[in-house]
Amino acid sequence: MTGPADRPPGRPAYRPPALQIASLALHAGAVVALAAAPRHWRTIAGTLVANHVALAAASLWPRGSLVGPNQLRLPDAAARRGEVSLTFDDGPDPEVTPRVLDLLDAAGMQASFFVIGRRARAHPRLVAEIASRGHRVENHTETHPPLFACYTAGLLRREILPVQDLIAAATGSPPRLFRAPAGLRNPLLDWVLHTAGLRYVSWTRRGFDAVESNPVAIARRLLHGLAPGDILLLHDGRAHGPRGAGGGNPVVLAALPPVLAALAGRGLRSVAIPGLSSEASGPAPLLQADSAG
């Protein structure tokens, strides 16, 4: 982990989540207990297994915060202004993303695009265009691996750090936000994000457009119970497809217009998620899951 000598200026020291601290303390206690009473090894081993099951369950809770802070909503000040945030994952796609940008421009809305590194590398001009139109480009891993939540710290860094440099080269600014594939992570990710200067973001509600083909159903999921401050999840690309190729997600082009119209009709405006504390009027709420997901 980073120490005082190698920590970037202005970045606070890393503080592990309480669940990780408790887990480390449990393992230390297990070593002492095993040395003092080796005949109870089955009980000790069972306790450690239960601990790892709890860590795994917490890691597979996309909107939970037990393995690290997790932004589910915009800052309170943004909610008071009637703002929400549309976010788009798994792009950019040369066919779908430009049309998404046009729809957003026509509605006067801004969004955050969580891009896959290998796709951004194939379309750097499109990444630059996203930023030039006033949207934010954020980090969604290099390859969107399905086993991302099982990765070691070294593998996590290999999936995250190259995307930082790539997006910075294309847009002039490195990402400040990160979203894991399918929202699945593990306890090591929080430290890796801290060292990279990234904050973890999930969502308040999602349309399930990565698996849903009905745009009416997608829009309904996003709009039912929608409130100021919500973060909405859509996809302009598909992380995986036939032969693993991925591609665009054209259903979003049918689902997005009614969502944009509904936002305008309700007096709401979509903005990009603030990436730095100085970009927001107050701290973003870091919440655990609720019924909106």
How would you summarize what this structure contains?
This protein has 293 residues and is α/β, with parallel strands linked by helices.
Strand count, sense and barrel status of the largest sheet are:
6 strands, parallel
- Percent helix among the residues? 40-55%
Here the CATH topology of the largest domain equals TIM Barrel
The name of the CATH architecture of the largest domain is: Alpha-Beta Barrel
Rg over CA atoms: 20 Å
| Number of separate structural domains | 2
User: In angstroms, what separates the terminal alpha carbons?
Assistant: 33 Å
* Uncertain stretches of 5 or more adjacent residues: 1-7, 277-293
The geometry reads as elongated
Q: What is the overall pLDDT average?
A: 85
Structural class: alpha/beta
Strand residues, percent: 5-15%
The helix count comes to 10
- CATH homologous superfamily of the largest domain, by name? Glycoside hydrolase/deacetylase
Q: What is the C-level CATH assignment of the largest domain?
A: Alpha Beta
Question: Helix and strand string, N-terminal first?
Answer: HHHEHEHHEHEHEEHEEEHE
The overall strand count is 10
Features:
single chain; 293 residues; alpha/beta; TIM Barrel; 2 domains; six-stranded parallel sheet; two-stranded parallel ribbon; 10 helices; 41% helix; elongated
Describe this structure in words.
- By secondary structure, the protein is an alpha/beta fold.
- It has 2 domains: 18-59; 76-279, TIM Barrel (Alpha-Beta Barrel).
- It has helices at 18-36, 41-59, 76-80, 97-107, 117-122, 124-132, 153-171, 189-196, 215-223, 251-265, and strands spanning 83-91, 111-115, 136-139, 177-178, 199-200, 205-206, 231-235, 237-238, 247-248, 269-270.
- Strands 1, 2, 3, 6, 7 and 10 form a 6-stranded parallel beta sheet that branches. It has a two-stranded parallel sheet with strand order 4-5. The protein has a two-stranded antiparallel sheet with strand order 8-9.
- Helix 9 links the parallel strand 6 (205-206) and strand 7 (231-235).
- The model is unreliable at 1-7 and 277-293 (pLDDT under 50).
